[in-house]
TrEMBL record:
Lineage of the species this protein comes from: Eukaryota, Metazoa, Ecdysozoa, Arthropoda, Hexapoda
Naturally occurring in which organism (per UniProt): Drosophila erecta (Fruit fly)
Transmembrane segments: 96-115, 121-142, 181-204, 225-244, 250-270, 380-398, 410-435, 540-561, 573-590
Identification of the protein by name: Uncharacterized protein, isoform F
One Gene Ontology term from the biological process aspect of the record: potassium ion import across plasma membrane
Family: Belongs to the SLC12A transporter family. K/Cl co-transporter subfamily.
Subcellular location: Cell membrane
Biased composition, class Basic and acidic residues, residue ranges: 22-40, 900-918, 933-950
InterPro entries registered for this protein in UniProt: AA-permease/SLC12A_dom, KCL_cotranspt, SLC12_C, SLC12A_fam
Residue intervals of the SLC12A transporter C-terminal domain: 673-786, 801-1028
Length: 1028
């Protein structure tokens, strides 16, 4: 401000006549001519129709330049690629089916479907089994709805839930959940590997067992899984390290296997509608037996007698019950569904039998005698944990957002359709399995009663090998995908630098592979394989996925409740209550399934969170937790003090500068209504007025004015604070307010100031204060809004319809895009439609410009009509010259009047001196005629200067041309608009009276014929973003 004052003083001195040199008009005209010529040389490339914005265009891009730079962008974390492959030509962007639906299908359908779903149905019964599947599907559906809202709230780079949570809830939550997601993905690979080994050893090649007959010893079976699982992990790790290309191609094969296998099961169910004579079980009383050849399944045969009567003394249950052969697959027509309605939960060591009689299920003798026993204690909640991994994989579409032609459309549709499809398959499978298979066979987890066969495989058409080979290959493919994705997720977390100890894993090998991350993934995966049991792995990894899904729901709920300006999801079918229900379901399922596994997952998350909070690198991603700090007290203020908010958290913190009239009442009441209508951004509002005078003398006036200001704010429902400042000069008082108002991160970032309507009549002071305030706001890097025609603005309790027209000439941070969106959140403007106009320069391709602008608005999630206005005629009209000449003549008249006033004051002082000398020396020393002659001569010189200025200044002509041309176009297009929002041209750099007066005239011409105008000038930072 000091430089401006000094400059102002120098300008004032320039227009005062010197006693030795007469006037300085000629020198001043020469200097201004030199300045104009220099500026013309520098700005010759600017479109003549936009010359009024020449100062802005030097530092801020024209719209055509801006939108063309962002129309094509890359937004992905690099996916797994083959480092040895030659660079391929850019492929076409994927649609919803290929890019989202099928990958989700592949990731959701997994090993549990083939090797555990029948056991879940048999154990839980049709009703509880249906509820188990429905609960899991509801969790993923609610999470998918929340994820769709987040994924369509801007461009989501690859990274799935980690990216969405970290950018929505902050680096602490993001890092913690990212590590949980990584751990879950790694353990999923272990589960797939163990599941693949189980399929091979149990159903395809039982002879390959290393530790003997595992049908008689569960430990031997799990030891086999550990050994073969380790070997398979090493083999798959080598494939991932050496042949990513093979992994990507194998994914297609795995998907085909999954789809064909499911089709084979459905065909087989209807093919066996009357049952299947191939599978029979041997049942003693109500207990299911194993390893009993069907020809020996009778009491008359010595095989059973030798088994139950080893010393001539027979087991009591054997003596009391008969042995029967039972058909395993009875078919839908048999009515077996009614036998499978109710649950049959058992404790470990109890016998699998019909009913719940203690005589049938309890092992009283201590020997199993080839009777099949429950290997784990089952319950409704445990089965949820075991089944839940079957519904995970919903993030596959969001992970590929960078490869999608229209991610904001494809992700919600593809993901939700995939969940609906898989949920339909799972729920129908529950009903079909319950209506087709005998209860005892459903509960035989490993198919030991039918000779170690897979139940689902024996339902399928044409034979069991379709399912065995298909399930093995699909499980193998899912494991390879997990081993490929997990290291890259870990590397992405490490590269974000939020967890310092992960820094070594951010590096890639020479081939571009995350080798270090892959090694760590293999180690963790091996730990999971050492558990050796799918039934232990499934609930454990369910915890990690449930934590991720819970935080996705939390992120959506927080963003929705905060209503941050950047929260504008294109997906509209979401609600914060659905997200909270999803979060509650996730937490409930975690605790019900396994409270100790839940504590492990939560403890891991808390440890990582605290580690990032105290030791991690500081990141600012515009997350919702930092947005909540705007409503908190001391702690939040200290956090907000760390730096400016992220673009996503930017909201207008409004400072309303209200002018008071002589009665100390706000001059423009509706400026408070306008501030209220902008409050949809949930920002802070401070209203301040400045009174001229001495604070010690007019303290009571200041108190009364503040009370009046508070009353106006209350009446107009402005939520915020008010204050009144007493200053010697209004301009200096406003400058002090703008520089010092606010506290820490709660400082205003947007100033609203009224238009000085009577600036012509009131002389220099009115517009000088206005321009000084504009300069101060710019120097403080704050945004500025100048409503003109404020008395015509609507009341807050009115509803209006029509158009809000945005004339976007210069990009200054996107404030012009954000303000109408915020206004439309208020009931007053909600029914208005947005129309965006921009001006094409001569060299612009207006068709491409319109296309790019539509693309930009689409990614901003703002619905508006777009029109590109071409102003090809750059010829300066006679009216422009005439209007400029009138403006300059007015300035010269004002300058002449100023000179005369100063001459008069000088003459008066000289006359006083003359009178004194007459009193002292006598009348002969008086020289009055000479003085009068000097006065007349001065007036004549001023008039002569006024009459000689017949040719307007070219510098002013160009700006007047811009104002007139733009005004003509704006009035033509937007005269009936409810509100016209446009860029406010920057004030003149030179602090000179003529330039400042001309600037006000240009703004008047620019807005002539428009009833309601909002002139906006950004603060030099981005306030809106296409990213989530």
């Amino acid at each position: 401000m000091q430089s401006n004052s000094a400059k102002d003083d120098s300008d004032e001195m320039e227009i005062i006549p010197s006693e030795h040199n007469g006037t300085v008009h000629e020198t001043k005209n020469e200097d201004s001519g030199d300045i104009h010529r220099a500026e013309e040389n520098q700005k010759s490339s600017i479109d003549p129709n936009l010359y009024l914005y020449d100062d802005d265009l030097e530092t801020r891009p024209h719209i055509s330049t801006f939108i063309s730079s962002i129309a094509n962008y890359e937004n992905t974390i690099p996916a797994a690629t083959d480092p040895d492959a030659k660079p391929a030509a850019p492929s076409a962007r994927m649609g919803t089916l290929i890019g989202v639906f099928l990958p989700c299908i592949q990731n959701i359908f997994g090993v549990i479907l083939f090797i555990r779903l029948t056991w879940v149905v048999g154990t839980a019964g049709a009703v509880c089994g249906f509820l188990i599947v429905l609960t899991c599907c509801c969790v993923t559906m609610l999470t998918a709805i929340s994820m769709s809202a987040i994924a369509t709230n801007g461009v989501v780079p690859a990274g799935g839930s980690y990216f969405m949570i970290s950018r929505s809830l902050g680096p602490e939550f993001g890092g913690a959940v990212g590590m949980l997601f990584y751990t879950g993905t790694t353990l999923a690979a272990a589960m797939y590997i163990v599941g693949a080994v189980e399929i091979v050893l149990t159903y395809m090649a039982p002879w390959a067992s290393i530790f003997g007959d595992f049908t008689k010893d569960a430990d031997a079976m799990y030891n086999n899984f550990r050994v073969y699982g380790t070997l398979l992990l090493i083999f798959m790790g080598l494939i991932v390290f050496l042949g990513v290309k093979f992994v990507n191609k194998f994914a297609t094969v795995a998907l085909a296997c999954v789809i064909l296998s499911i089709i084979a099961v459905y065909v087989g169910i209807f093919d066996n509608i009357h049952g299947n004579e191939k599978l029979y079980m041997c049942v003693l009383g109500k207990r299911l037996l194993k390893d009993i050849p069907l020809e020996n399944c009778t009491k008359e045969d010595s095989f059973l007698r030798d088994l139950y009567c080893p010393d001539g003394k027979c087991e009591e249950y054997y003596l009391a019950n008969n042995v029967t052969k039972v058909k395993g697959i009875k078919g839908l027509a048999s009515g077996v569904f009614y036998d499978n309605i109710f649950p049959s939960f058992l404790e470990k060591g109890q016998f699998i039998s019909y009913g719940k009689s203690a005589i049938d299920i309890e092992n009283t003798s201590g020997e199993s005698y080839n009777q099949i026993m429950a290997d784990i204690t089952t319950s409704f909640t445990l089965l949820i944990g075991i089944f839940f991994p079957s519904v995970t994989g919903i993030m596959a579409g969001s992970n590929r957002s960078g490869d999608l032609a229209d991610a904001q459309k494809s992700i919600p549709i593809g993901t939700i359709c995939a969940i609906l499809t898989t949920s339909t398959v799972y729920l129908s499978s529950v009903m079909f399995f319950a209506g087709t298979v005998d209860n005892l066979l459903l509960r035989d987890k490993f198919g030991q009663s039918i000779g170690g066969k897979l139940v689902v495989a024996n339902i399928a058409w044409p034979n069991q090998w379709v399912i065995l080979i298909g399930s093995f290959l699909s499980t193998l493919g899912a494991g390879l995908q997990s081993l490929t994705g997990a290291p890259r997720l870990l590397q992405a977390i490490a590269r974000d630098e939020i967890i310092p100890f992960l820094a070594p894993f951010a590096k890639s090998s020479k081939r571009g592979e995350p080798t270090r991350a892959l090694l760590l993934t293999i180690v963790i995966c091996q730990c999971g394989i050492l558990l050796g049991n799918v039934d232990l792995l499934a609930p454990l990894l369910s915890m990690f996925f449930l934590m991720c899904y819970g935080f996705v729901n939390l992120a959506c709920a927080v963003q929705t409740l905060l209503r941050t300006p950047n929260w504008r999801p294109r997906f509209k079918f979401y609600h914060w209550s659905l997200s909270l229900i999803g979060l509650t379901l996730c937490i409930s399922v975690m605790i019900m399934t396994s409270w100790y596994f839940a504590l492990i997952a939560m403890g891991m998350a808390i440890i990582i969170y605290k580690y990032i909070e105290y030791r991690g690198a500081e990141k600012e991603w515009g997350d919702g937790i930092r947005g909540m700090a705007l409503t908190a007290a001391r702690y939040s203020l200290l956090r907000l003090e760390e730096g400016p908010p992220h673009t996503k958290n930017w909201r207008p913190q409004i400072l309303v500068l209200s002018k008071l009239n002589d009665n100390l009442l706000p001059k423009y009441r509706k400026i408070f209504s306008f501030a209220t209508q902008l409050k949809a951004g949930k920002g802070l509002t401070i209203c301040v007025s400045v009174i001229k005078g001495d604070h010690t003398k007019i303290t009571n006036k200041a108190v009364d004015a503040k009370a009046t200001l508070r009353k106006y704010m209350t009446d107009e429902k402005v939520k915020g604070f008010c204050d009144v400042l007493v200053a010697q000069q209004i301009g200096e008082g406003l400058s002090s307010v703008i520089q010092t108002i606010g506290l820490g991160g709660m400082k205003p970032n947007t100033v609203i100031i009224g238009w000085p309507y009577s600036w012509r009549q009131e002389g220099r002071n009115s517009w000088k204060t206005f321009i000084q305030t504009v300069r101060t706001v710019a120097a403080c890097h704050m945004a500025l809004m100048v409503p003109k025609g404020i008395n015509f603005y609507p009341e807050s309790n009115h509803k209006i319809g029509g158009n809000i027209d945005i004339w976007w000439i210069v990009h200054d941070g996107g404030l012009l895009m954000l303000l109408p969106f915020l206004l439309k959140q208020h009931r007053t403007w909600r029914n208005c439609k947005l129309r965006i106009f921009t001006v094409a320069q001569i060299e612009d391709n207006s068709i491409q410009m319109k296309k790019d602008l539509k693309t930009f608005l689409y990614h901003l999630r703002i619905e508006a009509d777009v029109e590109v206005v071409e102003m090809n005629n750059s010829d300066i009209s006679a009216y422009t010259y005439e209007r400029t000449l009138m403006m300059e003549q007015r300035n010269q008249m004002l300058r002449a009047l100023g000179l005369n006033k100063k001459e008069n004051s000088k003459v008066d002082s000289q006359n006083d001196e003359k009178r004194n000398s007459i009193d002292l020396d006598g009348p002969e020393n008086a020289d009055t005629p000479e003085t009068t002659s000097n006065k007349d001569e001065s007036t004549e010189k001023a008039d002569g200067d006024f009459k000689s200025s017949v040719k307007p200044d070219e510098f002013n002509v160009r700006r007047m041309h811009t104002a007139i041309k733009l005004n003509e176009v704006i009035v033509e297009k937007s005269q009936d608009a409810q509100l016209v929002i446009m860029n406010l041209p920057g004030p003149p750099r030179e602090v000179r009276a003529e330039r400042e007066s001309n600037y006000m005239e240009f703004l008047e011409v620019l807005t002539e014929g428009l009833e309601k105008v909002l002139m906006v000038r950004g603060g030099g930072r981005e306030v809106i973003t296409i990213y989530s």
